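Pasting as-is:
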Amino acid sequence: MFDKCFSTHTFNRIYGINCCIIPAKEAADSERLRSIPRIDAKKGLKIMNGDQSLGVVITGGSKGLGYAFASEFLAAGDRVVICGRNSGQLEEALHALRLAVPEGEIYGIGCDVGDPSGARSLVDFAVAKLGRVDRWINNAGTAGILKRPLWELDADDILETCTTNLAGSIMMCAEAVNFMQHQPSSERPCYHIFNMGFSLTGVTLSRSAVPHKVSKRGVAELTHFLSRELNAAGVKSIGVHELSPGLVLTELLLRDATEKASRFLKVIAEKPEKVASILVPKIRSVTARNTRLRYEPLAKMVFRILVGMPRIFGNALV
């Protein structure tokens, strides 16, 4: 699917000043993107295992599912940029990924997705390191410090949850679309953005606090409306999608959980590595403009809960 998007002719275009027609209000961003030192275009077309490698950006990639995504993309021969707010965790993740996939290309930058300057810095860094971004995954998020009723939450905790999840995803989508429009165009989607919002079923079943539910439901609407805007604007080369990983066994999921809830989650939630192994091939091969990529059908998760009942309740069922 990449030949039409990334021919020698179109790659020459992106490195010249006439790569696209730029509206006046985007002139400053266009100039900033063109001024960034880029890798050689041929590097962006590296062939791995008979397939062309992808340029991938993953926010919140220093731990949990984001880290597992990065590992899977590297194993597939892709070039990956991750970001994180904690510089120590970020360096540890980069070191571990380089050890796990010595031949892989992995880069990292400290970034707060809720900070507008952080979003711009991430794009500039990705442009400089990858030259081309094919997949952008808005994975960074938080469930908040406490899983309590809204009136028991601290205002700073509410603000951080909504800023990171919703405002962060919005700003990252805006930056990603702006950059992708400066890449060689195509009549069909060859650049793809992935958000991780809540479906109506997901938000109903979630035990998280109100700010998390509301912000994640908002992210799902972001995906829907951004896709409509791109379609209305005639932008055909960019797809926007929802990722549904289901319940993933991470520190974020278990935070502030009761002992009973933790036991339940440890039975029904899947390890990040397993989820990534299923979703990454789907992310790499997506061709649609707007779709939902699921780790597993809801019915399968329900079946896993039923099978795990004895482990959840122990002797209570005997």
